[in-house]
Write a structure and sequence with these properties.
- The chain is of the alpha/beta class and 525 residues long.
- The chain folds into three domains: 84 residues, no CATH class; 236 residues, Endonuclease, Chain A; 164 residues, Endonuclease, Chain A.
- It has 19 helices and 17 strands.
- The strands form three sheets. The protein has an eight-stranded mixed sheet with strand order 9-16-15-14-10-11-12-17, with helices on both faces. It has a seven-stranded mixed sheet with strand order 1-8-6-5-2-3-4, sandwiched between helices. Strands 7-13 form a two-stranded parallel ribbon.
- The model has no long low-confidence stretch (mean pLDDT 89).
C-alpha cells in the first residue's frame, strides 16, 4: 500500500516527467544522427565510410567545447567540477544535462518583475544609521552589518525592536496563536511547508475567524515543498475561505531550471507590528505531535517594533512578484510604529538565486561573523554540506583560538544529506572545530551565536541548496534580548548532544569513498 502511494504520488510523477523529458531530448538527438547517416548513405554512398568518423569527431569536439565553457563560466567553483566530470564521462548526454540543468537563474521575465517590485518598495526603505554610526554603535560587528547592507540594500539595521526567542515549536505555537488573535488589519504568511494537521488546523481556525472580522489574510506556500502534504488545489480551498492564497512557483510539466529555485522562507507579519521567522514550518512534526525522526528540535524569532518592516518588505517583494502586481506599500505600514528602547539592533535580510541577489549573502554573513569572532562561534544546522570558503573560515577561526562548535542531527530526515554531512566531520575536527550530534533526534534549527553579542536566526541551512538556489531569510541581531535566550538554548542543547571524535568520523573505508564521490556532485542538488 505504501509503495502504491509513492508510485502515484505527485512527487514521483514530477520526477518521472523530468526523466521522460530528458530521455525524449536524448532520443531526438540520436534519431537525428541516425537520420543524417541514412541520408548520406543513400545520396552520397561514397562518403559513407567517413560518416561515422566525422560524427565521432564532432561528438567529442562539442563535448570539449562545453567542458571549456563550464571551466570558464562565472559560477560557484564547486559546481564546475561535477559538470565537467558529467560531460567527460557521458559525452553528448552530459552536454544535454548541462544545457538543461546547469543554470538556476530565474527567467528574464521574473527578473524584470523583481526589479519593478523592488523599485516600488525601495522608496519606503529608509536607512536609520550611516556606516560610521554602525561602527560606533556595534564595534567590530558593524563591519558585518555594513557588508550585508552594502550588497543587499533591503537589509536595513533597525533599533527600537523587541526580540523574543523560542527554542521549540511548542513554545512558538502558543505565542503565535495569541498574536494572530490580536490582528486588526492584516496577516501575511509565507512558508515552505504547510500540512494539514493539529498545528495548521489550529492556525487556520484563527485565520478564518479573523477574516470574518474583516482582517486581510494572505498565505503563500511553496508548491514543491508542500508536495504530499496538501492536495494539488489546496490554494483554491483557502481562497474559498477568503484567504488571498498563492502557490510559489507551481510545478508545470515543462523542463526548466526555475523549479530549482524554491521559496524556503518562513515569515509571518501581523499589522506591520509583529513579525516571525526561523526554522519552523507549519506541520505537526515541528511541534512534536508526530515523531518521524525522534524529537524535532527547532526555533523561531519574534520581532516587535521597527524591525518588523524588514520582514514586511521581504514578504511584499516575494508575493507581488508571484501575483504580478505592485502593492501600495503605505497601506501596510503602521501609522505610529511602536518603539522599544531595549539595547541592541536587528537587521532582517533576504537571500536568493543569482542575479536577483548578486551574492550569496547568507554565506557571507556566516564567514564575516567567523572572521570577526574572538571567543566563540556556536552553530546549529540540520545539514553540513559546505564549500571550501566556509570550511576554511570555520577552521581558521578554530585555529586562532575561537571555540567553534557545530550541532547537527543524530537521527537524519534524509539519508544522503546525512551521509554528506558526516563526510565533512573529519576535516573540520582535524582543523579544531567541535562537532556535536543532537542525540534525541533531528535538529532543524538554523542558528549562529558569536561572542555572546551577535546572533543570526533564520531559514538558511549550511548547504548548497540554501546558499545557491533557494529564497531564504534571516535576522542578524546585535546585543538584543533574544541573544541571551539563544545562548541558553545552545548550552541546554549541548548537554543533549554527543561530541564527535576522529574515530566517530572515520567509519568504514567503503562508506568514506562513497561519501567522497557524493560530495563531488553535492553542489548540483
Amino acid at each position: 500500500m505504501r509503495l502504491f502511494k509513492r508510485i502515484f504520488s505527485r512527487f514521483f510523477i514530477v520526477a518521472l516527467t523530468i526523466i521522460i523529458f530528458v530521455l525524449l531530448i536524448w532520443a531526438a538527438i540520436i534519431a537525428a544522427l541516425v537520420l543524417l547517416h541514412g541520408v548520406i548513405a543513400r545520396y552520397a554512398p561514397e562518403a559513407e565510410p567517413y560518416v561515422s568518423l566525422v560524427i565521432f569527431i564532432i561528438w567529442y569536439l562539442v563535448a570539449a567545447i562545453f567542458v571549456i565553457h563550464a571551466a570558464n563560466r562565472d559560477m560557484v567553483p564547486e559546481t564546475k567540477i561535477p559538470w565537467i566530470i558529467t560531460i567527460v564521462v557521458f559525452s553528448m548526454f552530459g552536454v544535454v544535462l548541462y544545457l538543461l540543468f546547469s543554470s538556476a537563474r530565474p527567467s528574464k521575465k521574473k527578473r524584470r518583475l523583481y526589479r519593478d517590485v523592488d523599485f516600488a518598495i525601495r522608496k519606503h526603505e529608509e536607512r536609520k544609521f550611516t556606516p560610521e554610526e554602525l561602527h560606533g554603535r556595534m564595534g567590530r560587528w558593524g563591519m558585518v552589518s555594513e557588508a550585508l547592507s552594502t550588497v543587499t540594500p533591503e537589509a536595513i539595521v533597525y533599533g527600537g525592536t523587541r526580540t523574543e526567542y523560542f527554542p521549540s515549536g511548542e513554545e512558538f505555537l502558543e505565542r503565535f496563536l495569541s498574536d494572530l488573535e490580536k490582528a486588526e488589519k492584516y496577516i501575511f504568511m509565507e512558508y515552505f511547508i504547510i500540512e494539514r494537521g493539529q498545528m495548521w488546523n489550529s492556525i487556520l481556525s484563527v485565520l478564518e475567524r479573523k477574516i470574518r472580522e474583516g482582517v486581510e489574510v494572505r498565505v503563500m506556500y511553496d508548491d514543491i515543498g508542500c508536495m504530499g502534504k496538501i492536495h494539488l488545489n489546496y490554494h483554491r480551498t483557502l481562497k474559498k475561505k477568503g484567504i488571498y492564497c498563492k502557490k510559489f512557483s507551481p510545478f508545470v510539466p515543462v523542463l526548466t531550471t526555475v523549479h530549482n529555485n524554491r521559496d524556503h522562507r518562513k515569515i509571518t507579519v501581523i499589522d506591520g507590528k509583529i513579525g516571525y521567522t526561523g526554522g519552523l514550518n507549519l506541520a505537526d512534526e515541528y511541534i512534536n505531535v508526530t515523531h518521524p525522526f525522534g524529537h524535532w528540535k527547532d526555533n523561531a524569532i519574534r520581532l516587535e517594533g521597527e524591525g518588523v518592516k524588514g520582514l514586511l518588505f521581504m514578504f511584499l517583494r516575494q508575493f507581488d512578484v508571484q501575483v504580478k502586481t505592485i502593492d501600495e506599500v503605505e497601506r501596510y505600514l503602521p501609522e505610529t510604529p511602536e518603539r522599544f528602547e531595549e539595547e541592541g539592533y536587528v537587521q532582517p535580510y533576504g537571500d536568493g538565486p543569482f542575479p536577483i541577489y548578486p551574492r550569496h549573502f547568507s554565506e557571507d554573513v556566516y564567514i564575516n561573523i567567523l572572521n570577526g569572532a574572538r571567543e566563540r562561534v556556536w552553530i546549529a544546522t540540520p545539514y553540513l554540506i559546505i564549500d571550501y570558503s566556509l570550511k576554511q573560515a570555520l577552521i581558521l577561526a578554530a585555529r586562532r583560538g575561537v571555540d567553534v562548535r557545530i550541532i547537527t542531527p543524530h537521527i537524519p530526515d534524509k539519508k544522503i544529506p546525512f551521509a554528506l554531512t558526516r563526510s565533512n566531520y573529519m576535516a573540520l575536527i582535524e582543523g579544531g572545530v567541535k562537532i556535536y550530534e543532537y542525540i534525541p533526534g533531528f535538529i532543524h534549527a538554523k542558528l549562529m551565536l558569536a561572542d555572546d553579542e551577535v546572533a543570526t536566526v533564520g531559514t538558511v541551512n549550511l548547504d548548497y541548496r540554501s546558499f545557491l538556489f533557494h529564497y531564504e531569510d534571516g535576522v542578524l541581531m546585535y546585543k538584543t534580548k533574544a541573544v541571551e535566550g539563544i545562548k541558553k538554548d545552545f548550552e541546554e542543547t549541548f548537554e543533549k548532544s554527543a561530541l564527535q571524535t576522529r574515530e566517530d568520523a572515520k567509519r568504514s573505508v567503503v562508506w568514506r569513498w562513497i561519501c567522497e564521490l557524493a560530495k563531488i556532485f553535492a553542489p548540483l542538488f
